[in-house]
Design goal:
Blueprint: E1 9-13, H1 14-25, E2 31-32, E3 34-35, H2 37-41, H3 45-55, E4 59-62, H4 65-75, E5 80-83, H5 92-97, E6 101-104, H6 107-116, E7 123-125, H7 137-149, E8 154-156, H8 168-181, E9 187-189, H9 193-197, E10 206-207, E11 226-238, E12 243-244, E13 250-251, E14 256-262, E15 278-281, E16 284-289, E17 296-300, E18 310-314, H10 320-327, H11 331-337, E19 343-347
Parallel strand pairs: 1-19, 2-10, 3-4, 4-5, 5-6, 6-7, 7-8, 8-9
Antiparallel strand pairs: 1-11, 11-14, 11-18, 12-13, 14-17, 15-16, 16-17
Helix pairs in contact: 1-3, 3-4, 10-11
Bound molecules: pyridoxal-5'-phosphate.
Length: 348
């Protein structure tokens, strides 16, 4: 482990990342891109994008043009970089400089494209029912001839319920997407991680997973990509009946040893994380006790043969989705909230 020992350490396994991409790619007959928005789901867009480009990824996706700059730097001039938010006011310079491809979401954005850079590559994002981003069916029907005449690189849409394979919304959006795009000459894409797992009907010309690459559900076979090690600041003996932490929420039922570790809700280990979560000394689980504070977490280490100098909270046994479930959220939010002040290391 490198980095200072006074703050928690986040390790990102780039082998596992590459292996997850290959595993998702192997599930389809088509090309597989990669979504690296939000700093690659919090894991570091530079190393993540460089690793995936080396693996053969040729289509990257970011949320905003600003995020594309770091991807371009990491992957070099060849791969395509698409921007989900499309062509926002003032994006011209960024889109030009780094050769980013806006995904046009509205008639206003299309007008902006025609005025500012009619000869540059672009894609079209369609709303097939999620009502979040993309051209409405009526606007698309009206603009389609003009847009198609300009040869969009891709026409895509996004599924609202793909993490629930049996949800009727999946088939409904598939039908809407087909109705809207049958006959286009552009490449088509509908599937993120969930859609990739729904089967070939959803794959079209390429898939664009995000969360599955980073070890999250709904890709159940994902290899864990992140581990988090928490340095122990001090260990104390606690008598039966004594309490630990804010609000006295934990009471010792036996003579206990309590370790205080350096991480808390300010690091994305949400205060809402309830019972059933452990930290690990090797394979030995040690339960969290008491409330999670801003910078500190307390752990029952009574059953360890000796006091640990660090404890691991994310590993192969306990994943981001386990933490998410305990906090009442999703793995995506745990990943993207993790550790702005953690030291970081990459396994290459
Ligand atoms: C975030 C996002 C993705 C990737 O979704 P995952 O569920 O993380 O695989 C794909 N497409 C769009 C439009 C997105 O916003």
């Amino acid at each position: 482990m490198n980095g200072a020992m006074s703050i928690a350490h986040l390790t990102i396994n780039l082998h596992a990342l590459a292996s997850n991409w290959r595993a998702l790619d192997a599930k389809t007959e088509v090309e597989t891109g990669a979504v690296v928005k939000a700093d690659a789901y919090g894991l570091g867009v530079g190393p993540v994008s460089a690793t995936l480009a080396e693996e053969g990824v040729r289509k990257f996706f970011v949320a905003a043009a600003e995020e594309g700059v770091a991807v371009r730097e990491a992957v070099g001039p060849e791969p395509q970089i698409f921007v989900f938010s499309g062509f926002m006011e003032g994006d011209n310079g960024l889109l030009y400089a780094d050769n980013l491809i806006p995904l046009i979401n509205s008639p206003e954005q299309f007008k902006r494209l025609q005025q500012a850079m009619p000869d540059r590559p672009f894609g079209v994002q369609l709303d097939s029912g999620m009502n979040r981003l993309g051209l409405e069916p009526a606007d698309w029907a009206e603009l389609r001839p003009e847009m198609e005449a300009m040869n969009p690189v891709v026409v895509m849409s996004h599924l609202a319920c793909a993490d629930e394979p049996d949800h009727p919304m999946n088939r409904q959006q598939l039908k809407t997407f087909r109705d809207m795009t049958d006959g286009v000459t552009a490449a088509r894409s509908l599937a993120a991680t969930g859609g990739t797992l729904l089967g070939s009907d959803f794959h079209f010309d390429f898939c664009r997973p995000g969360i599955g690459l980073y070890g999250g559900m709904p890709f159940v076979d994902a290899k864990p990509v992140v581990t988090v090690d928490l340095p122990v600041i001090q260990v104390r003996a606690v008598e039966v009946g004594e309490t630990v932490g804010y609000g006295n929420s934990w009471v010792a039922r036996r003579p206990s040893r309590i370790a205080t570790v350096a991480a808390g809700y300010a690091d994305g280990l949400h205060r809402a994380i309830g019972g059933g979560i452990d930290t690990f000394a090797g394979d030995q689980p040690c339960p969290l006790v008491g409330r999670i504070s801003m910078d500190l977490i307390t752990v029952d280490v009574t059953d360890l043969p000796e006091d640990p100098d660090r404890l691991r909270i994310l590993n192969g046994h306990q994943t981001v989705d386990d933490l998410a479930e305990a906090a009442g959220t999703i793995g995506y939010e745990i990943l993207t909230s993790l550790g702005a002040r953690f030291s970081r290391g990459y396994v290459e």
